[in-house]
Amino acid sequence: MKNFSTWMLVMFMGMFWMLRIAIAFCYGIGGDFGGMTPFNETMEVILLFVVLLCMILIVKRKMVGALIYLLSYGIYFGANLTTGISTLISASSEVSIAEMGTYLNTFVSLIGIILPIAVLLDLLMDKGRKANPKDKKTDWFYKNEKFDRELDERADKNNYRTL
User: Fold this and answer.
1) Among 117, 109, 113, which residue's Cα sits nearest to residue 87?
2) Residue 128: pLDDT band by 50, 70, 90 thresholds?
């Protein structure tokens, strides 16, 4: 990873992943994490492992990682986002404590949709991802004109055969 934007997105992915771990853990012990609860506890645990694999693939600049990340979060958070937005539209002016949890879950779902789209766009915008990969082990020699070897008149130009 050589782009600052990719580092930042992976850090946001990690923070969001840790938030989802805290939400699943609190739900598992019988509580809620500030009003947030998982939509499907079994799917949440599976999704945590899938996202961990996707984070590794995104760090390695693999497009398949971003696509799996977008697909899995789109399926998981997409349905809740649409129901949450319809709840927001039809809500009254008075907000109860129970509705605040719904609003918070809708906001987290919105982040869960925007983050994979941003990761996919970051990988798509990086033109040098495949065309010009960097290798620190050899670029210091091959990409540096100071180390180019110049032949002079003393250079051995004979082509010896070994039999």
Assistant:
1) 109
2) low
